[in-house]
């Protein structure tokens, strides 16, 4: 019993410090059509990102080649309220699978993250949106 209590006390402070960040999946906002809100998120390792299907028809998925080495890719279902805890520091490129060609992408930076390298096969509108995100627009 004492070992279990000690383990719980060691884990509890870390869980209490972790935050949950909400990302809304939208058909349109002031940034244009097919967007995540926010489009750029800076979080600490161990924080959770919750993707909310605020408007229907969207999901959240990692972009091949745009996650830190050793990080687990993920892909939610369409219209799913989906949460993921990101522990590996670095940049995560996120897309809406049905709308990536329309530029529905976002960037999550976990801890100290370098600017991501955009894959060559990224659709033109997705590339433009990432460039605007990285420029701070």
Automatic annotation (TrEMBL):
Q: What is this protein called?
A: Pseudoazurin
Q: Name one GO cellular component term.
A: periplasmic space
Query: Does the record's keyword annotation contain Oxidoreductase?
Result: no
Q: Name one GO molecular function term.
A: electron transfer activity
Cofactor dependency: Cu cation
Instruction: Give residue ranges for domain Blue (type 1) copper.
Output: 24-110
Its localization reads:
Periplasm
What binding details are noted for the cofactor? Binds 1 copper ion per subunit.
Residues given in the record as Cu cation binding sites: 58, 96, 99, 104
Q: Keyword annotations for this protein? A: Copper, Electron transport, Metal-binding, Periplasm, Plasmid, Transport
Record the organism.
Paracoccus yeei
The keyword Metal-binding belongs to this UniProt entry's keyword annotation: yes
